Amino acid sequence: MKRFIQTIKNIFSIEDLRVRILNTMGFLVIFRLGSYIVLPGIDPNRLDVNRNTSGILGFINTFSGGAFNNASIFALGIMPYISASIIVQLLSFAVPYFQKLQKEGDSGRKRLNQYTRVLTIFITIFQGYSYLKGAIDPSVIMNPGPFFFVTSVAILISGTMFCMWLGERITDKGIGNGISMLIMIGIVSRLPLALIAEISDKFPGKAFAFIIELFVLFGIVVAVIALTQATRRIPIQYAKQVIGNKLYGGKRDFIPLKLNSAGVMPIIFAQALMFFPALIAGMWRDSDIGAYIGSTFSDPYSWQYSLLFASMILIFTFFYTAITINSNDIADNLKRNGGFVPGVKPGKQTAEFIDTVLSRITLPGALFLCAIAVLPAFAVKAGVGQNFAQFFGGTSLLILVGVVLDTLQQIESYLLMRHYEGMMKSGRVKGRSQFAAA
């Protein structure tokens, strides 16, 4: 405890780090306050803020910290920006023009950011209108009409763009990745209420069961941390070069390939696609097939839903890993810089070797990711409350662990630069950025 207090003192003794932490807290407070400002024209007294949303709607509500159910100006949060970023990122791997922009350095990244912002506006227009028509109860709208929908969509666009601005300010003036911090604070904001509801449900009769739940949750968090940090290091040897009268090169290095290179993206893709069974059921509502699909896949904790969800995560993990890590580019860069994998010929054989290693580690990583994604369903079946069960796995837990590790790593970097002791006595904090694929 004494060492922990000393670490806190060291953190706040660094002026730059102290200012960044306070800036981050201020921006996050603004984000949370905005989630309670209801859209003009909606009666807040008629809103059912505690209604149960599932599927993609519950996914958005969790990421927005309840702003979705509150019908607030931040109802869509930064989800349109995330969708636009995913689309632009996929285009960067599939379309030559976007590939060229990605390789142009800062100017190319600025152009890609402009495309992402413009695409965010169009996505927000579509999602905003769908949100007002499908997710808002018509009885809470005081004066429904074209004027209400036009102004509300404009406000939702402004809210999403303001959230983007907050994220960028946190990245520039605060600590951690701004967009990730906004998602994390939205998820964390729902933890206290879920924990209180679980305690009130379990105590006093089921107090032992609640203690078991906490131990299981701790074990799951440890497993997710291990999944996030696990890497397979491929050794690299650089050839020696004589330049003038000096000898350069000859050093040894490694390529860190993550066990879970795709991160949370497969779960996000699969979660978005799980919205389609409900659409199919709505289109065929009068048929037996539509009734079966609607009754089966409307419950996110059913075994059919979990099986389909896990299957799509498995497919998307291999797909996303394949498009984000190009073994041929890695092999070409190694050959160009005079590096090689010991025992493997440079060029094509090196690319095949890296691809083989990547395939072998992606399968257990994908299976582990599937298990983490469906754990909330098993938690509900075991008697855990639905709100508290969301923190037993899925996207929420993976994002929380990843963001916390990244933030701790940045804080530790400031401490080490000022010659203070690190935050972990057993070793350095390792965030996701430390394991970026070469």
TrEMBL record:
The lineage of its organism: Bacteria, Pseudomonadati, Bacteroidota, Cytophagia, Cytophagales. It comes from the Bacteria. It is a multi-pass membrane protein. The chain crosses the membrane at residues 21-39, 73-95, 115-132, 147-167, 179-196, 208-227, 262-284, 304-326, 361-382, 388-408. One of its GO terms (biological process) is intracellular protein transmembrane transport. Its main location: membrane. Component of the Sec protein translocase complex. Heterotrimer consisting of SecY, SecE and SecG subunits. The heterotrimers can form oligomers, although 1 heterotrimer is thought to be able to translocate proteins. Interacts with the ribosome. Interacts with SecDF, and other proteins may be involved. Interacts with SecA. Belongs to the SecY/SEC61-alpha family. This is Protein translocase subunit SecY. It comes from Chryseolinea serpens. The central subunit of the protein translocation channel SecYEG. Consists of two halves formed by TMs 1-5 and 6-10. These two domains form a lateral gate at the front which open onto the bilayer between TMs 2 and 7, and are clamped together by SecE at the back. The channel is closed by both a pore ring composed of hydrophobic SecY resides and a short helix (helix 2A) on the extracellular side of the membrane which forms a plug. The plug probably moves laterally to allow the channel to open. The ring and the pore may move independently. The gene is secY. Keywords: Cell membrane, Membrane, Protein transport, Translocation, Transmembrane, Transmembrane helix, Transport. It is found in: Cell membrane; Membrane. GO terms for cellular component: plasma membrane.
